[in-house]
C-alpha cells in the first residue's frame, strides 16, 4: 500500500469554491479510471473553511504513479496552483498490522 496526506490552504473563500469545483470534477474521473486508487477522500478542515485535506491510498507506488499520469490529475494539479496560499504533502508508511 502507498498512502499520503495533503493539506491545501487556499487563498480565500472564492478560491475555496473554485478548488471545490475542481475536486468535484476530479473525483468521478478517479473512480472511473483508476482501479489502483483505493481511497481518495477530501475533507474541509473544521474551523478552517479555506483548508482542505486529501487522504489518498493506492494499491502500490505504481498505482500512485499511474494516478499522477492521468489527464484529469494533470488538469487538477495545473489549475489548483493559482488558488493556493500553500500546501503540505506527507507520504505515509503503514505502522503495525491494523487495517
From TrEMBL:
<dbReference type="GO" id="GO:0004497">
    <property type="term" value="F:monooxygenase activity"/>
</dbReference>
<dbReference type="InterPro" id="IPR050744">
    <property type="entry name" value="AI-2_Isomerase_LsrG"/>
</dbReference>
<dbReference type="InterPro" id="IPR011008">
    <property type="entry name" value="Dimeric_a/b-barrel"/>
</dbReference>
<protein>
    <submittedName>
        <fullName>Quinol monooxygenase YgiN</fullName>
    </submittedName>
</protein>
<keyword id="KW-0560">Oxidoreductase</keyword>
<keyword id="KW-0503">Monooxygenase</keyword>
<dbReference type="InterPro" id="IPR007138">
    <property type="entry name" value="ABM_dom"/>
</dbReference>
<feature type="domain" description="ABM">
    <location>
        <begin position="2"/>
        <end position="91"/>
    </location>
</feature>
<dbReference type="Pfam" id="PF03992">
    <property type="entry name" value="ABM"/>
</dbReference>
Amino acid at each position: 500500500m502507498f498512502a499520503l496526506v495533503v493539506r491545501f490552504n487556499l487563498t480565500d473563500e472564492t478560491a475555496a469554491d473554485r478548488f471545490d469545483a475542481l475536486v468535484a470534477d476530479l473525483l468521478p474521473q478517479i473512480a472511473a479510471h483508476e482501479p489502483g486508487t483505493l481511497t481518495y477522500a477530501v475533507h474541509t478542515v473544521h474551523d478552517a473553511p479555506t483548508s482542505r485535506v486529501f487522504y489518498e491510498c493506492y494499491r502500490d507506488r505504481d498505482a500512485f504513479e499511474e494516478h499522477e499520469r492521468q489527464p484529469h490529475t494533470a488538469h487538477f494539479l495545473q489549475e489548483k496552483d493559482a488558488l493556493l496560499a500553500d500546501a503540505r504533502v506527507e507520504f505515509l508508511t503503514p505502522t503495525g498490522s491494523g487495517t
